[in-house]
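Q: Convert this sequence to C-alpha cells.
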Amino acid sequence: EHVTPAVGQLIEALDAERLSIAESFGLEVKTVREHFSLSFHVPLASVSEMNQQMHREGRGGMGPSSIESRYIFEDVPFGLLPTVLLGRIVNRPAVLHEAGVRIFTASVAHNLEADNDLLPELSLDHLGPSELRELCESGF
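A:
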C-alpha cells in the first residue's frame, strides 16, 4: 500500500547502482527483489507488487510516522554515503544515492554527511579498487 509503483521503481533504480558497484568488485549479491521475496515470503515480482501483496495479506510494512527516523539519521550517513564513496572508488557513480543524501540533508536541515564519523577516519577516498580490496583482505 505504501510503496507505489514510482517508489518501487526508485528503490529498484537505487538497487541497480548498488549491484553495479558490487559487480565491479567481482561480488554477487542478492537483488532488492530477491531480498523482499525471501525475507517476506512473497512471490518474486516488482518491489511495489510485493509490497502490495504483503498489504493484501495484512502484513503491510509500518514505515516511520515522522521524519525523525533512523531511516534518515542512520541509513543516510551510514548506508547511502558509503555507497556513494564505493561508487566513486570504482568509477561507477551512485548518482541516486548521492541525490538522496542531498535531498534528505535539505529535508531535515542537518548535515547528515557530517554524522558519519567513520569514513573520514578510514580515509578510503584516495584508494583505488585494488587497494581497497587489499585493505579489506589484510586490514590496516
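The two ends are 46 Å apart (CA to CA).
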